Amino acid sequence: MLLAICTISLLATSIKSLAQPYTNTPASGSIKQGSNASNKQTPTSLSTPSQNILTLNDTSAVKKETDWFATLVSLFSLGVSGVVAYKSLLKKQNIKLCFGKDIILFPIFKIDAITSCTTLTGVQFNLPITFYNWSPQGGTIERIRLVVVKDGHDNFYDMIWTAFVKIGISGNFENDSLAQPIPVKGLSSVSKVIQFDWMIELGGRQFEVKSGKYKLRIYEWTNDSKCYSTEYESFFTIEDEDFVKFNDHVTRNSTESIWIPLNENHKPNRWLSEAEINDIYPPKKKPKKK
Fold first, then answer.
1. pTM for the full model?
2. 183 vs 113 pLDDT, higher one
């Protein structure tokens, strides 16, 4: 803002200078001396005023060119100041998100109050997400929905967020708070582990945990409207050993977690040769020199 004010002041001064006509008023002493010596001038002295007039005209032309140059510089500075002011003060919120490296699954059980029987009723998903906003204007994540579908199938599991969780001292997940709008300040980020629940009484059917690849979508709302603001997509793969582990937890009525990598994070640690590492992660090609 200070740069813009200084630029506007400089521009106003340049325009005023251009609008004011240039005048050259001789000093009073010169006028008096000229009147006393008028009778003593010789014809050869007539060339001196002509030379002075040419010199004054040249100075005036240089001054006008300088004023125009200052005006152009001021206009350019004003344009730069406007862009800076827009990016630092007026640019709207631009909240994006990125996933953590894993999605965590839990079986959900229901205990009958009379018979004390335990029944599998659903699956809980914990998904670490980081929201970031590179705009100076803050904003709010109004709500989030998670959609999961098995690859090649047409049965979508659409889930609303239910809570924010965190890892406690014991290493298990603990409730942090109910899911609620997340304020994100300008030029900042917020990280949350968001819990999504799929239960029979809410979704109408059991979530089928099977081996295979699953697609994952996140719908994000940054305002209270029907249409979502942004859509994100990822995938995870339930391996055979994950499927066996989940069924074992169900048999033992255990709520232990199963960590499943997202995207390409499922690759385990490996010992490789240089040729193998270059084949998996090819080096970035350098631009050709002209």
1. 0.69
2. 183
